[in-house]
Design a protein that fits this description.
The protein is mostly helical and 229 residues long. It is 76% helix and 3% strand. The protein contains 9 helices and 2 strands.
Amino acid sequence: MAKNPVTAYLSSSIGRKQIMGLSGVYLYFFLLVHLAGNIGMLSGAEHFNSYAYLLLHTLKEIIYPVECTLVAAFLLHVYLGIKVTIENRAARPERYAVNASKAKQGPYAKYMFVSGMWLLIFVLVHVPHFRMGLYSEIGTVTYDGVEMRDLYGAAMHFFAKGWFTAFYVISFLFLFNHLAHGVGSSLQSVGLNHPRYNAAIQFISKAYAVVITGGFTAIAIWAYFQRGV
């Protein structure tokens, strides 16, 4: 009995890689938007808290569905990443060929699984912490009679702790490794794969990794040194 075309595609190696690539591209775009929002911390508490209130209250009917798609994309990306890694390691006769292929792709490809697992831990800590206030209570502030969560105060409080800032910075160094290879790999998986453009795609991948990790890391270090201000 012939497989359903959709089932056949999802169970194929090409299908999994393309879906993993699409989910990756979506997550990479989110990182850019998230960084743009976090830069607002440099403008002070009122600006940042008001921005967060706009997203989480005024625009909540739009933001909540978007958050659901991000969670789905993240879980799908993690699942496929683990599945592909297990399948590659199980194919022992092809193991050396896989390793040789990674060596040709550069140093970052070799550590994609390790960086991915670290980032999974980071997300499991970061999202419940700041989005849900799970690990510590987030206070409130009032601007022009509107009460809102003091996310700025919570962020500055934790970035004042050396261990927290160190964990954050280390996590984004792992993210640099993941992006430096993953962005180019994702773009190639969804069809942007041609000898004429591959060098440019690899450059874009590394440049994007520098911008994202450099931006988030700089904000964390800046916040750490604000503890005495």
